[in-house]
Amino acid sequence: MPEIRELYDNRASLEPLFPTDRAGELKELAAELLRKSSRLSGTLHPITRRSVVAMLRSMNCYYSNLIEGHNTHPRAIEKALRNDYSSDPALRALQIESKAHIDVQGLLEQRLEREPETDVCSPEFLNWIHREFFERLPAEFRVVKTRSGGEDRVIPGALRQCEVEVARHTPPTFSSLPRFLGRFAEAYGVERLDPLQRIIAAAASHHRLAWIHPYLDGNGRVTRLFTHAYLIRAKTDGHGLWMVSRGLARQRDDYMAALAWGDAPRRNDFDGRGNLSDEGLMRFCRFFLRTTIDQVEFMAGLLDLDSMQERIFFAAERRFARTRSSVEIPRLLCDVFLRGQVTPGEATRILHKPERTARRILGSLVDEGLLVSDGRGEPLRIGFPAALAGYYFPRLYPEGVEFDGRME
Q1: Which of 146, 156, 261, 299 supports an S-S bond with 150, CB 3.0-4.6 Å?
Q2: Is the pLDDT reported for residue 271 higher than 90?
């Protein structure tokens, strides 16, 4: 153990920072991801896209929770966003955690929109993610158990001040963390890389940040939120229409195995020239990029305009089958989805109802989350309530999680 501690005190222990891509396999995967993500970003009306992105933040939170072993139902997450918390202390804590994740992802996206040149690899930015997340957590989520049976408290935004072990991996000494994070920022700075290198860097930096393990707790969360930010800076996030956590959670065992591959030390003279295995990092990057491409393809299939309209119409038709508006309401929802938004007056005309009846129907649709408005008389946008997630977006969540098998 002392030899390992001494070895991981030198920032050169982080090498290699990029795998040797002799056959150009990673560049081909990066080009495919760039092409498919760019195509996906132009699929929807910009206003509708914002509604989808908001829904996907909840999905991303659900899967990030799942990777951490916290299974929080999408409806519980949806209630947390309305500040409707459970009386069960354990579930309430999970709801607060979920809302914290969604809030921080939203803050992250707003910051990058406001300050597009932000250095997302800098220690300042990473500490900011950690601080914003942990400041929102309940007290019990800021405590970690030590190997001796004691407790340590997590300080939001602060690098760890003790040595740790993570499964079979011993991260760098706490005193060397500033040096390792400095090297991390130097190597992966977006502005120094070309478009394809940035995508490969998104994969490689994901592993290397997890390997550094800069915080006492929350490293997985910070790493995944950082990767989301990195893909935004690399202009490869499809304007928020796909997120990698779903793919990582659905292959959790493979994800953990891939991280372990990248942790491996250099094996022999044919395994690069760094401290860590070049082949191990190559295997992780290959796994990560294939996972991202799978998620882009999945979302592209879901957001196909024709099939999306069919699903909206089918779901709304079933929901309102016993009402006199069983045809008009699905038509309205499809129209709003395509156009981005409609005024209440336009919605009334689409419904073909007297004004008072139309107002009642529209109020009901807003109450159920099928339509969203910023206030009385304001334009109406499409909504994606958790109760209909399985109809609008089949397989977005695991079967049986997104809805209870019936319309409510």
Answers
A1: 146
A2: no
